[in-house]
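Feature request, filed as a ticket because there's no other form

It would be nice if the structure record came with a short human-readable summary line next to the tokens. Right now we just get the raw output. Example of a typical job, pasted below so the devs can see what we mean:
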Amino acid sequence: MKRLAIATVFTFTTFTVASASSPYTGEERQDIKALSVTQVDEYLAGKGMGYAKAAELNHYPGPKHVLELASELKLTAEQRKQIETISTEMESNAKQLGKKIVDQERQLDRAFVSGDIVDESLRQRLNELARLQAELRYTHLRAHLTTRMALTTEQIKQYDALRGYGADTANVGEHHHRH
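Raw output as currently delivered:
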């Protein structure tokens, strides 16, 4: 009986250890370990990736979404032109920064692979990545800020409603327009 109990515990322990896996399983084969394929694609395409959520959810519309909703928002020709310019500039800057971020992540990964990483170079690499991330976020948030200035209070309220953002429009009118 004692041998059966020991064998059962051993088998259970072995099975538990063998079946416990990391949430990172499979990611060791990725080109850049810290980024998924989807993240790499989004960085390179200049996607928003949630960087402007603070603006979007506080009545600062995104230029791409405004253009998608142009007819519902009844954009004037001048507004459309302004917002197209904002969107084009944002996308161009975001793609450039996204490429730099992907390149920096790739270099960081390779430094770990080669074993050529030390504390000082690690700090420098991370500081540069943080700077690029901040610049990318600024790019997206600035686009929302300038888009809001091109719209009327009513267009912003309509945008929020079309995007499904509740009825909290108390602060929508508290901004200055440049139309």
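Something like this underneath would help us a lot:
Helices lie at 2-19, 37-45, 53-56, 63-68, 70-73, 77-114, 119-150, 153-163.
The radius of gyration is 24 Å.
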